[in-house]
Amino acid sequence: MGDSVALIITETRDAVGTIVMNHAARRNALSEALISEITTALGAFREQAMRAIVLRAPAGSKVWSAGHDVSELPAGGRDPLGWSDPLRVLIRAIQEYPAPVLALIEGGVWGGACEVAMACDLIVATPEATFAITPAKLGVPYNLGGLLTVLNMIPLPVAKEMLFTAQPIPVAQALNLGVVNYVRPTEEIEAFVYQLAEQIVANSPLSIAVMKEELRLLSSARSVTPELFERIQGLRREVYDSHDYQEGLAAFAEKRKPRFLGR
Ligand code: YXS
Fold this sequence. Notes:
The protein has eleven helices and eleven strands. It is an alpha/beta fold. It has a single domain (about 1-200), classed as 2-enoyl-CoA Hydratase, Chain A, domain 1 (Alpha-Beta Complex), CATH 3.90.226.10. Strand 3 (about 15-20), helix 1 (about 30-45) and strand 4 form a beta-alpha-beta unit. The radius of gyration is 18 Å and the shape is globular. Bound molecules: (2S)-sulfonatepropionyl-CoA. Belongs to the enoyl-CoA hydratase/isomerase family. It is an enzyme of class 4 (lyase).
């Protein structure tokens, strides 16, 4: 039986650690509190030398995660996705965990939660799963590292479609693109994911940990000149200092459609 804490449930099966995001009232919005509990659980699993991690929502969930907790985005004048933003901290914690993290996905995956799923090493989803990358819906200028995660996973035309429409894509398209490893029905997905995890656990944890880190380093190896970095940061600041960024947050809070003016 697992230890249940406020926003997550954790459990272990042999050398497989499981984290269940369990904040249904907020559709597992990635708040600082939820992320803190996930990263704490990952730290504990690392102490226990767990050789595979499963990250999921409760069985039968309609929403895996609603993405960044919008109410925690800064009101303006500050990068909403800076290095120490909890979402960025979670992405790095998953990418740097020295064993495979398997995303077991049921329901909708929204906004920054898409990047959390794509930061995982394998994704197994149910046929009802959908994936939506939504910064454009809010007026948020996604950050460089986040766009790199997307680009490493999704061909450019589809990445642009997802980023520019902010609409969900069905799991069939994600499977065709290779973003999702397998699709399994709800009644089979749990046994299937743990069978995958057991296959991983049976192999050399040192070899796997090093290959995971090699792949992380290689996939993030990009030459970014100071001029390029500063130009991008300047462009992003124009967005998060804009009327439209404020309008996106206000519209979300007021549960209405935003009226973007392009300034
Ligand atoms: O009205 P109450 O207080 O009960 O709260 C509602 C929602 O406001 C709340 N909630 C959220 N709170 C903060 N941040 C969120 N992302 C968020 N999502 C939901 O949870 C309560 C129940 O939501 P409700 O009534 O809408 O549930 P539903 O079952 O009808 O609909 C589920 C969703 C996920 C389809 C719906 O909640 C939704 O569309 N949520 C927003 C999804 C989204 O746009 N996420 C992107 C967040 S921004 C982000 O991730 C990055 C910054 S970026 O944009 O760059 O990707």
